[in-house]
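All the exercises in this workshop are built on plain-text protein records. The record below serves as our worked example for the rest of this section.
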Amino acid sequence: MPIDAAKAVAAEPRTGEIAWNSKDVQLYHLGIGAGVPATDPDELRYTLESRLHVLPSFATVAGSGSPGVISGLSMPGIEVDLAKVLHGGQSLTIHRPLPAEGTATATGRIAAVYDKGKAAVLVMRTEVADADGPLWTNDAQIFVRGEGGWGGDRGPSGRLDPPSGEPDRVVERAVREDQALLYRLSGDWNPLHADPEFAKVAGFERPILHGLCTYGITLKAVVDTVLGGDVARVRSYVTRFAGVVYPGETLRIRMWEQQGAVRVAVSAVERDDAPVLADTVVEHA
């Protein structure tokens, strides 16, 4: 079996220094669709360095996403085919508002390996701290198709009961044809998002959008519509990637407001509201 669960979890964490600046933040924001309309004051806070606010999901790419998913797939005990890898879910805990420029120490490790029968799930945890203390904790759940079935722990279920009633807010966000090409400049170079031939080998009709791009688009929509544009109110953000998005499609983002949280569901308009993000919660102050 290419995945040795015990060896992967027992492996020494990888620690490295990461750094980012306002240009990295601006590029990320553009990669998730910020800046439309370009002169809108609400958009300028994402694109203009003199008034820059950092969307918390930037944490998933800060320091070019280091240690990152691709790096995690080379940890001891793990040897997998990249074409069989899918990002299954993501959770982010924000300990302090992210600065527009910074240096920090990122520590990455395999926190768990679960056996889902037809797939293995790797939980890749990255903890980031600077001189003032913890900044954020990132958990990426990575599905590796065809690598389950060894009799390991299935792990917890992240499925939530669906929200009740009609959503409080519904917005739509267009995804540009070149959105994946722009987003990948922030550090996720998986050819699945750019190379048509690689996408076909992986079982898709054409390159798909990064799940974390959809993740960022969705958080921006929640911040802009429910949280009054205040990025500092976000405390945590968790989602399950329930389906793919193709560049050029339109996302329908439904929001249910709760005490201290927003439940969210995202679908692809052009494919009869096919689910894209599910079990999604943004906790906020």
